[in-house]
Design goal:
heterodimer; A: alpha/beta; Rossmann fold; 3 domains; globular; B: 45% helix; binds guanosine-5'-triphosphate; binds magnesium ion
């Protein structure tokens, strides 16, 4: 597909064009900007982005699958970006989240894309942000981002979401301790999944305490059965409505946008910096920080200096 | 900018539920630096094709131990063509007799692995079809 076909295809909600468009972004293709500037901004503004995060095995994909099912009942065209960590050693990744979503495989109004972290910190957010916009412009609303809540980059991703659900479940080990380390901060709603299992009630009670302090709700689900999922979706959507009414939504999106601009800029600078940093061929023996400053000031030009 | 990563889809069409081999290949490919989308057992050719399109993979690897490869593998090619994605190369693997390998290749399957194929060969083959 050439770039004009991709641009035209996204606007016509063609899933292959959406997929090709996301690949342009992922591969740092030079035609990416043409696509991104062609997207229908009103669709992007309208689409609600739902974040699903939580520890491995909590049931995020199962829940996502059921959220998809519920959205389809409401005749919404839905997008899913499923993010998995890349192996730090080999750079490879296995995406298994789709296994739980295959019941929708033939539904052309369900668009699923797997994405690996590739060890890029801000770069992943930037790529995922652009991918979400492509899906939105391709008619998807809502869009779900599923990510394992473990690493920093995965957590940053959640800033792309309007409303984030933190999914936990009994029997995952250090239940609440693991959650407390940062994840609770980003959650707009807390989900105790696997409510059919022993320990769920206990976990819900513990989480309720933290949730109350933060003015958050705790919802119980049995994702494997679909129990509580419709309520969860409705609650997430109504949180979004409240955020829109209070101006919180606009504030968050502006912040996410500013952050993405910085992330992209850093991504673009990285290779330049690497090249310049290597230019001395390893001969330079001075202090690395001093050297870095000289390089940055060289890029800024016009006698602008780094204020550090 | 970022250099291109190879993305592949590993799928099991048909009715057999043995995915040890498919998972083993998925892991080997990951360890060789591939991004592998795994769709699980008992997928229809159509489901596999749609997933391959949405994930925009560089290649599809099919595993079948049920003996139905002569029906299933070409059906995946057909579905890909239907979705305008005949350019995605397809590789097959499983218990496939020599005479069937020739037939499958003639129909457009790029390579066929059997239980005797080494993981190293499998990885090299994926690399070369993705590279094209
Ligand atoms: N008993 C019970 N099991 C569930 C429930 N939801 C999911 N599971 C099971 O929990 C396991 C993990 O589910 P996934 O949906 O793959 O979990 P995940 O959070 O996406 O896992 P990762 O993507 O590996 O981080 C699967 O075996 C599910 O069938 C539930 O509500 N109750
Ligand atoms: Mg998952």
């Amino acid at each position: 597909m050439d770039i004009d076909q991709i641009i035209d295809g996204v606007a016509r909600r063609n899933n292959r064009a959406i997929a090709k468009g996301i690949s342009l972004v992922e591969n740092g293709d030079e035609r990416t900007d043409r696509l991104l500037t062609s997207l229908d901004q009103s669709l992007i503004d309208e689409a609600v982005v739902l974040g699903i995060t939580g520890p491995p095995g909590a049931g995020k994909s199962t829940l996502t699958d059921k959220l998809v099912k519920t959205s389809r009942k409401l005749e919404k065209r839905i997008g899913v970006v499923a993010i998995d960590p890349s192996s730090p050693l080999t750079g490879g990744a296995i995406h298994g989240d789709r296994i739980r979503m295959m019941q929708h495989a033939l539904d052309t109004d369900v668009v699923v894309r797997s994405m690996a972290t590739r060890g890029r910190l801000g770069g992943l957010c930037a790529s995922a942000g652009a991918s979400v916009r492509i899906m939105a412009a391709g008619g998807c609303n809502p869009i779900i981002i599923e990510t394992v809540g473990v690493g920093q980059s995965e957590m940053d991703i959640i800033s792309l979401a309007d409303v984030t659900a933190l999914v936990s479940a009994p029997g995952l080990g250090d239940d609440i301790q693991a959650l407390k380390a940062g994840l609770l901060e980003v959650a707009d709603i807390m989900v105790v999944n696997k409510a059919d299992k022993p320990g769920a009630e206990m976990l819900a009670m513990e989480l309720s305490e933290v949730a109350r302090e933060k003015g958050r709700e705790v919802v119980k689900t049995v994702a494997s059965e679909g129990t509580g999922v419709e309520e969860l979706l409705q609650t997430m959507l109504s949180i979004f409505e409240q955020q829109k009414a209070s101006g919180e939504s606009r504030r968050r999106r502006r912040e996410a946008r500013e952050r993405e601009v910085v992330d992209w800029a850093l991504e673009m600078l990285r290779p330049v910096l690497r090249e310049r940093g290597a230019e001395d061929g390893g001969e330079y023996s001075g202090d690395p920080r001093v050297r870095a400053k000289a390089i940055v000031e060289g890029i800024l030009g016009d006698g602008e200096s780094v204020n550090q | 900018m970022a250099d291109k990563k190879y993305r592949v889809l590993i799928a099991k069409p048909g009715l057999d539920g043995h995915d040890r081999g498919a998972k083993c290949i998925a892991r080997a490919l990951r360890d060789a630096g591939f991004e592998v989308v795994y769709t699980g057992i008992r997928r229809s050719p159509e489901e596999i094709a749609v997933a391959a399109v949405q994930e925009d993979v560089d290649a599809v690897g099919l595993s079948s131990l049920s003996g139905a490869h002569l029906q299933l593998f070409p059906k995946v090619l057909e579905s890909l063509k239907k979705h305008d994605a005949a350019d995605i190369p397809v590789i097959g693997g499983g218990i496939v007799p020599d005479e069937d390998i020739a037939i499958l290749k003639e129909q457009g399957i790029q390579a066929v692995f059997t239980p005797g194929t080494s993981l190293a060969d499998i990885i090299t083959t994926f690399q070369s079809v993705c590279h094209k």
